[in-house]
Amino acid sequence: MKSTNAENTDSMNTDESPCPSINSSLSHCAPVASRDLLTSCVHCGFCLEVCPTYQLSGDENNSPRGRLRLWREEAEGRLAEDPWTVNYTQDCVGCLACESACPANVPYGEILEHTRHSHVATGRTRVKPLLRLAAALSARPAFFNMAMFPVRALRRLGILPHRFLFGGSPALAVSTAGYAKQLMEKHRPTGPRVALLTGCLMESVYREINFATVRVLIANNVQVFVPGNQTCCGAMQEHLGLDQVDRLRAQNRDAFSAMDVDAVVSNSSGCGLAMKKTLAGQKPVRDVLDFLGELDLVPRQRRDDGTRVYVDLPCHLVHGQKLDGIPSKVLDATGYRWELAPQARDCCGSGGVYNLQQPENAREILARKSSFLNGAAGEPVILATSNHVCMMQWNSAKSGDLVRRPFQVRHVIQLLDE
Ligand code: SF4
Ligand code: SF4
Q: What spacing in Å lies between the alpha carbon of 69 and ligand 2's midpoint?
């Protein structure tokens, strides 16, 4: 496993940090994390075996316990600021499997978020210019939608120029907001009221999943509203340690918090987790499949054509949002014969933009997880999940020699919609 990173500064930063790194307010400069957070680890090691980077490298420093120790020793001045600490921080996928395994409830994700922000703010990590550009574009949804028009057009034509792009037929001009308004006027549902987060990449590239979400909700008598002033959830910026997170969260609080709805729903588990942080204490944020699991769902017709669906559970659904998974009632309602993919709760390596930052590590993680598809029963085979970024990562297994048989990648909401 590769654990050095060309993005990082290659020399030790000996300048005194402008901010003290422990016991500082989390809202100024670039704090790492408070002393309480950094000392909450009891070193039991229960998290090691669930950590994909530890599994690959066998290196304690590349485990949750090891990273926490490095960050704490730096913060307490017992370890000089070292580029290796930055490398090990960058190697973390951010899957949060360690949080689920931790008996001491160490808030690893929160500590990681502050540490990454600190490393970027103090110049210890340099974010690749292309990723900075992508983050800046995604923070301007209207512009991003226009810029991605050619990508939507290519997908409609069935031309997929990159291994991360999976097949689909997104609308070119009609937005999800416009589509939801049309359907609401036509069907006039009377049930619970939800506001839909449309997302940046989801809306600009994979819009057909948003459309399917609207159709399924309305078909189940849910009233769907799509605020026009919403923006990107900020998950990507958070993962990269960029400053824009607070601005994006503030804009989404303005867009969603005053709405007269029962819940804000998201069809992407990573975005849903980000929105839970954004609207904490203001509005319930629900994963759309979890929300649907509480309704009397309209089931699809049973399909007995040999198709087999393997369901993968996104990390940010089960470890981030702490949900048990995708309700079996929802999966049954698709009409497909389904089963959980082997290691369904393990990371696929996508990790937000981890597969762009650390492509070799991400590929190794995916290779381990996807190999079962080569011998999986069923024809055709569908890999279904509930996060578009995971769908992109799974789709990339079709290239190279990871998975040598054809398979489709679908969002579970699309299976309900068919
Ligand atoms: S977030 Fe995932 S990759 Fe990072 S330390 Fe925890 S288990 Fe390992
Ligand atoms: S499981 Fe929690 S307490 Fe135990 S070593 Fe890992 S982070 Fe520390």
A: 10
CB atoms within 10 A of CB 20: 12
Q: What angle do CA 143, 147, 148 make, to 5 degrees?
A: 120
- The burial class, CB within 10 Å (0-12 / 13-18 / 19+), for 1 is middle
Residue nearest atom 8 in ligand 1 by C-alpha distance = 51
| Contact (Cβ atoms closer than 8 angstroms) between residue 223 and residue 192 | yes
Percent of the chain with pLDDT over 90: 86
pLDDT at 32 (0 to 100): 52
339 has which bridge partners? 310
Report the C-alpha gap between 334 and 328 in whole angstroms. 10
Q: What's the angle, vertex CA 318, arms to CA 118 and CA 356, rounded to 5?
A: 50
Q: Alpha-carbon distance 78 to 74, whole Å?
A: 6
Between 9-13, 251-255, 308-312, the lowest mean confidence (pLDDT) is in 9-13
**Residue 378 and residue 411 in contact, taking contact as beta carbons nearer than 8 Å:** no
Residue-range domains of the chain with CATH? 1-126 (1.10.1060), 132-292 (no CATH), 308-417 (no CATH)
How many whole angstroms from 320 Cα to the centroid of ligand 1?
Answer: 12
Q: What is the pLDDT of residues 282-323, one digit of tens each?
A: 999 999 999 999 999 988 888 889 999 999 999 999 999 999
DSSP structure class, residue 36: H
Tally Cβ neighbours within 10 Å of residue 165: 17
96 lines ligand 1 (CB under 6 A): yes
The pTM is what? 0.90
Q: How far apart (Å, rounded) are the C-alpha atoms in residues 270 and 391?
A: 12
Residue whose token pair is 């008996």: 103
Read off the DSSP letter of residue 373.
Answer: G
| Whether residue 42 has its Cβ less than 6 Å from ligand 2 | yes
By the 10 Å C-beta count (0-12 exposed, 13-18 middle, 19+ buried), 219 is classed as: middle
Q: Decide: residue 103, CB within 10 A, 0-12 exposed, 13-18 middle, 19+ buried.
A: exposed
- In this structure, the number of other CB atoms found within 10 A of the CB of residue 84 comes to 14
Q: Are 141 and 203 in contact (CB under 8 A)?
A: yes
Considering every ligand atom shown, identify the ligand nearest to the alpha carbon of residue 112 and give its number.
1
Distance of CA 111 from the midpoint of ligand 2 (Å): 13
Residue type present at position 228 = G
The DSSP element (H or E) to which 263 belongs, if any, is strand 263-266
